[in-house]
Automatic annotation (TrEMBL):
<keyword id="KW-0378">Hydrolase</keyword>
<dbReference type="GO" id="GO:0051603">
    <property type="term" value="P:proteolysis involved in protein catabolic process"/>
</dbReference>
<keyword id="KW-0732">Signal</keyword>
<dbReference type="GO" id="GO:0016020">
    <property type="term" value="C:membrane"/>
</dbReference>
<protein>
    <submittedName>
        <fullName>M48 family metalloprotease</fullName>
    </submittedName>
</protein>
<keyword id="KW-0482">Metalloprotease</keyword>
<dbReference type="InterPro" id="IPR001915">
    <property type="entry name" value="Peptidase_M48"/>
</dbReference>
<dbReference type="InterPro" id="IPR051156">
    <property type="entry name" value="Mito/Outer_Membr_Metalloprot"/>
</dbReference>
<dbReference type="GO" id="GO:0046872">
    <property type="term" value="F:metal ion binding"/>
</dbReference>
<dbReference type="Pfam" id="PF01435">
    <property type="entry name" value="Peptidase_M48"/>
</dbReference>
<feature type="signal peptide">
    <location>
        <begin position="1"/>
        <end position="26"/>
    </location>
</feature>
<feature type="domain" description="Peptidase M48">
    <location>
        <begin position="75"/>
        <end position="266"/>
    </location>
</feature>
<dbReference type="GO" id="GO:0004222">
    <property type="term" value="F:metalloendopeptidase activity"/>
</dbReference>
<keyword id="KW-0645">Protease</keyword>
<keyword id="KW-0479">Metal-binding</keyword>
<keyword id="KW-0862">Zinc</keyword>
Amino acid sequence: MTITTRLATAALSGLLLAATPAAAQAQPQYQPRATTQTQNPTALPITAADRQEGAKAHRQLLAEYGGPYSGPQVPYIESIGKNIAVQSGLGSAKTDFTVTVLNSPVENAFANPGGYIYLTRQLAALANNEAELAAVLGHEVGHVAARHSAKRQSAAQRNSIIGAIGSILSGVVLGNTGLGQLGQQLFSSGSQLLTLKFSRAQESEADQLAVTYLKRAGYDPTALGAILQRLAAQNALDAQLQGTSDSTPTWASTHPEPAARVRTALALAGQARGITNRDAYLTRIDGLMYGDDPRQGMVEGRTFTHPEMKLTFTAPAGSFLANGTQAVSIGGKNGQGQFTSAPFSGDLDTYVRAVFGKLSSQAQLAPTQIERTTVNGIPAAYGQARVTTSDGPVDVTVFAYAFAQGQAYHFVTIAPAGRGGAFDPMYRSLRRISTTEASQIRPRRLRIVTVKAGDTVRTLAARMAYTDAPLQRFLVLNGLTETTRLPTGTKVKLVTY
């Protein structure tokens, strides 16, 4: 959750970095074939209209995401993206493409017309070599080359998270959205709100094009299958840590079944092999920020802490938190919720009613009454409305805090009727933190270490900066199993402070 104004209005928190001239100087240690003239029967060169539309969308994304991720690893990552993109035939030179790294803790990538390609730093951290990262970016470029975006729904469906909640709650009020569906929508990947979903056939075509681009660039084409497997493993681990049953990766939503997709990707690669640049890649991404950025707030188990907003709160037992682009999402057996902010004139009653009013675009929501209270010395107000869903009645609660002059925050929660009280401990847990507490919040970093004699996956995993599932996190991050024996001198990834 990002601060972008004095009012701490919840702007999208994934940060972007446009390509810089330095990227041209940051070439891989073993340079893949830099084909500058390619032929792709499905690709048409980027048009002036594409560039205009892409530039407009790019500016909007930059504004919505609130700024760039500026790590020293970025020019190198950009060079990989440009090298694979030029294989598509959309442009004849690497300068025809803009690769942007998002400051997001979610593994994701997407592309827009006009040569604009996006990936998150978290995805770069999950990849084990250049070929794997190139495979994912090649897939996204493939969507553009095949003109899939023209076959999707209108780009006007891009919404902020608050817009999405409004749409969801409209369904709740109209009785055509169940609480289970609501939870899935609230906790869908933020990228789902920025890019529209492709059909299964389109995903398969993009996979085929990605393998073609890998072969043209001289990369190992089996890398697509490898990174798809790791994305599935990471998503399954996230589901396990959150206690959710849905283990379908966000990248596989409406896509071909994950295992089949991996098998198909490996079959497309055939017997062809190429370079991976594993050691060079790992060396160059050393120090990449991993997980939450403290400037956007940190999730530790069920507790969210924001050192710049100077606040913290803890979700109820059995819940999990996801620090999203515009809000912190809360999910679990008790219901669903989000923590965010809105413009504040100084009147909490007006604030609460305004939040209710914006929750649904199709039916006006209003609390039956507004109660005033104080939470840990902070003036607060709350209200509740009962609405009908296909699964029965639910209670929608808005609990707001006058945190400072001109600054307010609030929870919106949805729970089965009569069970909204399960969130009371969370409402009462919000408090200010001191400057000393805030200064102790540190980011995690990806560190590349060399295996020494006697090191095992368990001894190395014990060095991970996590108290929950350090071994599983280490194995997924590196694409290993518990029985893997690590040769001395091998490079592996750790996450440390």
